[in-house]
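for the writeup, i need someone to sanity check this before i put it in the appendix. the sequnce is what the collaborator sent (i think, or maybe the updated version? ugh). structure was predicted straight from it, no edits. if anything looks off just tell me and ill rerun, i have time this weekend
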Amino acid sequence: MARALLHRVGSPLSQELDDAEIARNGEFQQDLDEALNDKLDQVRAGWGEKYVNRVHTKGKLTTWERINALKDEGSRVFEVGTLVNWGVEFAGSRRPAPGAGVVTCFARVANRWVVIIANDNTVASGAWWPKTPEKIERAQEMALRLRLPVVYLVDCSGLFLPEQSRSFAGATGAGHIFKKNSLLAANGVPQIAGVFGDCIAGGGYMPIISDRVYMTESAYMVIAGAALIRGAKSLKLTSLDIGGPEVHVHQSGCADVRVPDDPAALTQIRNEVERLPTSAAEFYRHGVDAAPPTFDTHELTSLFPPDFRQGYAIEQVIARLVDQSLFHEVLSGVGREMVVGLGRVSGLWCGFIANRQGLVDEPGRGKRAGGALYREGIAKISQFSRACNADGIPIIWLQDISGFDIGAEAERQGLLGYGSNLIYTNSTNDVPMFTVLLRKASGAGYYAMNGLPYDPVVQLSTPMTRLAVMEGRTLAIATYNSKLDDDFEIATDDPEERAAIEKGMADTAARIEADMDPVRAASRMDTDELVPVSELRPWLECLVESAWQSAGYRRVKNPRIWSVHDLEVLCPTR
């Protein structure tokens, strides 16, 4: 019977690094993690205690109180898009919009993974800011790709009107949320909504297409609130009178069930999720129990050197991500700057595609630098990606890449064509793919290794990630190339011109280095979430279990008939 034979990879960290390196790397990572966690805490606090008290005065729970009451006891929440809008100021507001005023996350409810989309009612009463629609749509897309139930916790005062031009129109404007509602419904993805307060205009539309809609006594859904209806003031009408549960549960039929308060609504939503099919993950484990890595995941904190130009062993990373640190490498004798293979996460099969660092000995080619893509490696990961797609195996991309090989030989070998082949493969795969940007994510290599433009279900970055076309110094050289000689030195004897070029290059490099900050990338939604490296294993458990939860919507082969086995027969290790 054809099967993947798993072998132990990795080793104790003390055999890989000396004590001084472990301490130095750990301190570097700790500083990054502390800075990140401080920002995450600020976002999760919303607009602060004053606004929490204001919510409680209305007899309601805050958004995070609702999420914590809804999720399974003892389970954790995996938030995406936490840092969207970080550092951005908005006209008409003295305060920022932490998290774009909405929480989107994966959570376990009634032992099933769901995607929760919840307006933050401590931030402008859950208003939609610039990037709020995109953030909601991104979460809806994740749910659609994985066929996970969506739970909407709606408490939304509509668009933040002073910035409406940046959130109303366009291809990803607020109206696209309702199209995503429709696509989820058309694909049979369950949607359950709890309406807890203000639901004005778009906020009122969002829950309507859901399969179940619960309204509390303090909730209302209206196209326009009482403030905009002529005569409402003289008639002493409130928005609750116009669109409260009395209207929408008992008259219009736009909601299904009327409940007294937040806790009652959350109990009913849990009951609805419990009526859905259970997760298929246990079936797809094929009798294998989930198991942690043999080597402690938290040791990843001490593995990566502070200087991104220094290498590390990618096998040590994989050993701290896969169950029991067991891995089956495929096509190990060719394209050795790339590692492809199979492992289990939480007892479930997944494919790994990763960049090797340092000098790599390629059979028949000699030594060459890792962290780049050469012809053999591109062909290797293209074929492995296609095989995983044919077999229904989710793929995890571990990206640390400086780009493609360049030069006359690379062009003669047709790297443009091989790269296009890989891009086509990644663009047309149906299997769930997840991308982790470990450190460098540079140039076309970022695209080829399934960067966000190629639609991974989720792209994670770490606090080390540097996402850009090229590094700041390199880009400065490219920008001022006409002013430099063949050794990239400034080609002028004029002191004033030299000083101006030096300043221009320094300013360019500094600006690019600042743009490469992963927090800025997360704020722009150029990545889905920043995750400390020590947290990557729990994140992968969530994502891989989510990928295997729903059955019957994509091709899934049992391991006996994988096409991955054919690759190894036809291309044995040399």
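The chain has three domains: 45-278, 282-469+518-570, 472-515. The radius of gyration is 26 Å.
thx in advance!!
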